[in-house]
Amino acid sequence: MNWSLPFAAVGSAIIGFLASFAHFSRFVRDMLAALGDVRTWGPLTIMQMRRLGVDSLPIALFLSAFTGIVLALQASYTFTGAIPLYFVGALVTKTMILELGPVLTGLALSGRVGANIAAEIGTMRVSEQIDALETMAYNPMAYLVVPRVLAGLVMVPLLVIFANVLGIISGWVTSMNVLEMTSAQFIRGSRLFYDSFDIAYCVIKSISFGLTITVMGCYQGFSTRGGAEGVGISTTRAVVLASMLILVLDAFWALVLLQ
């Protein structure tokens, strides 16, 4: 048995990781430098806000509506008479704002927005359209990356807020019509453990999720190689990495801000 093979594999993996990290660091550096080119990315940002935000609103609202319904039904099943039923309002409101609203919306957008960005930019990379931008004296970072990242930073928190509101409303309606609760009982439960910091916590998480989704999509798109197959690989990587990082950030913010 050749005992050097495992060490060689580990060394190769470490070198590959360091090379990828260096490449990503250069990408972030170029993106930050492109922020100064306002004349290029300024007019494009509004269009990207519509594409990334407004066009994603239906799926975010669909997820949140049924999440609120399920939360209300499961809460009533879990309490089984041992806990006052108005606690359903507390569970629906607290869970939607702190966890399920931001995380489910982020995961859905990583599939819709992240994949779309990676596929679009990846196709431009393999078809040499990005090289054409450079020959026309356009900064590809300012033209392609910065508008999408800024749109994600603004629109993802707004989508999460809309999702939270609809999720709470759907839980409220379900509680009144299925669980035979009154509106006053649900509102009493919602106000029971409410803290204004919950909104700030939700927004902080949402901003980090929006940044992760758009940066991963743009980075994977710019790193695409190898034609149509490469575009597919980059799209898959963008979705998987963004989804994993969203879960990591979810745990990170809970550890940092809720302890």
Write up what this structure looks like:
The chain is elongated, with a radius of gyration of 22 Å. It has helices spanning 4-33, 38-52, 57-79, 87-126, 129-135, 140-177, 183-192, 197-222, 227-257. The chain has one domain (34-257). By secondary structure, it is mainly alpha-helical.
What key phrases describe this protein's structure?
259 residues, mainly alpha, 9 helices, 85% helix, elongated
Encode the helix/strand succession as letters.
HHHHHHHHH
Q: Class by helix and strand content?
A: mainly alpha
> N- to C-terminal separation?
50 Å
What is the overall pLDDT average?
A: 89
Dominant shape = elongated
Integer count of domains: 1
What percent strand?
Answer: under 5%
In DSSP terms (H or I, runs of 4 or more residues), the helix count works out at: 9
Largest sheet: none
Number of strand segments? 0
Evaluate the radius of gyration: 22 Å
Oligomer: single chain
Low-pLDDT residue intervals, each spanning 5 or more residues = none
As a percent range, the share of helical residues equals over 70%
